[in-house]
Write the structure tokens for this entry.
Amino acid sequence: MKNKFLFGVVGHHISYSQSPQIFEVIASALNLEHSFVLHDIDPSTFDEQFPQVLASGIDGFSVTIPHKNRVVKFLDRIDPVAALLRAVNSVRIRDGQVTGFSTDGDGFAIPLEKHREELMGGKALIFGAGGAATAVIHCLHTRFGTARFYVLGRDREKLNRFASSLAQGIPEVELDTLTISEYAAVRDENYSIVVNCTPLGGWNHPNATPLPGDFVWRPGRVYYDLSYNEGNKIVAQARQRSMIAYDGSAMLVGQALRSFHLWTGYSVAFDNVYRAVFGNSGD
Ligand code: NAP
């Protein structure tokens, strides 16, 4: 097998990315030579710049906010889950073929395995209606049996598009979409998990929150934030309110390991990589 690789990440405002460090740990564990490039591309120049990434000799790269849909038209092939979700977060270039995958669900599921029973047949409150929210809903529904979803966003038209796209991809999902100002309508719903699928509270918006002022914290239930910035204030607040809170660090490592396997054929154990990057076991 090949033992020298070029990897990267394609996104915008991604200087915070911990992907280079994660891929360094994975490649070192396997004694593989590699380089990793951050491709920060403004949405307005994406169509000109993205083909240059594809032509750079790159073997595989992650795709993050806000380009997960934009890459689709450049692919030769798309795997069934990514096609269903209409969002690609991992691209492999092999033998001239550009293939898109969705590995977010693989990473997202990792901390939830121990909550399978509580999630089964339950309800989920989701903030954000982008690519990651779709992957989260698909994962919760197909792997953990979550039955009903309330998705809150800031723009009614985007929420409508999100709902109709989801209805085509995963028609069996029961979904209500609401603007943040309509939160009162679901405040008393008995949800088992709350997921923040917006960048608010993360690296670029550390003091912002998507949660409304009258948000009801549910002690003993799961709060899951996809951001993985150290000291995330919403995660800390959720713990103070006795929710079981996770940030996106395990998801980040889990989806990177899955991507690495897709790009190279090699695998490394999750715990070793997580500990090397984040300095603890993540429990
Ligand atoms: P996306 O497709 O661009 O969707 C982002 C969502 O957040 C949209 O609903 C967007 O609303 C909303 N949003 C963005 N800025 C906002 C603001 N200032 N105020 C209110 N809402 C705002 O992005 P994504 O791929 O779903 O990713 C979402 C977040 O998850 C990002 O922070 C990303 O880094 C994180 N993520 C983490 C992992 C991990 O491994 N830990 C994996 C995937 C994603 P509009 O549609 O109205 O713009």
Remarks:
- The chain has ten helices and twelve strands.
